[in-house]
Amino acid sequence: MRLDEYVSKVMKEKGFTAYQVQKNSEGAIKDSYVARLAEGKSKYPSVPKLKDLAKGLQVDFWELVAVAANERVKEGLTEEWTPESLADAMAEVARDEDLREALKILLRASPEKRTQIVKYLRRK
């Protein structure tokens, strides 16, 4: 599900207007921005904006991050490590058991072994 679909769905289910989301966030996110997100006109909110949006929508922050991350991953926007793409990757790891296990293995490996593993994966 895309972020705009998720925001619209939650707002509809809870009977929230964009202004109500702004009020719920204590003004941290503006109603005009919420409306742009719901319409798909703004697509990639920063992590702080996602926190404000989660508060305004009264949803779990990590659930919202997962939706936003899924959209970025599908569009191939996670090549460059930015704070947002790192949050996207973390959300993907949180959702996927195989990725969590792979990360545990990498974290336990020596630096030399990590290098070998990464070289192997790049060949695939």
Describe this structure in words.
- This protein is mainly alpha-helical.
- It has one domain (3-96): lambda repressor-like DNA-binding domains (434 Repressor (Amino-terminal Domain)).
- Helices cover 73% and strands 0% of the residues.
- It contains eight helices and no strands.
- It has helices at residues 3-14, 18-24, 31-38, 47-57, 61-74, 83-95, 97-108, 111-123.
- The radius of gyration is 17 Å and the shape is elongated.
- The two termini are 29 Å apart.
- The mean pLDDT is 86.
Strand and helix layout:
Elements: H1 3-14, H2 18-24, H3 31-38, H4 47-57, H5 61-74, H6 83-95, H7 97-108, H8 111-123
Helix pairs in contact: 2-3, 2-4, 5-6, 6-7
Largest sheet: none
Report strand %.
under 5%
Q: Report the CATH topology name.
A: 434 Repressor (Amino-terminal Domain)
Shape: elongated
Number of discrete helical segments: 8
Number of domains: 1
Structural class, judged by helices and strands? mainly alpha
What's the number of extended β-strand segments? Answer: 0
Rg for CA atoms: 17 Å
CATH architecture: Orthogonal Bundle
Quickly list its features.
single chain; 124 residues; mainly alpha; 434 Repressor (Amino-terminal Domain); 8 helices; 73% helix
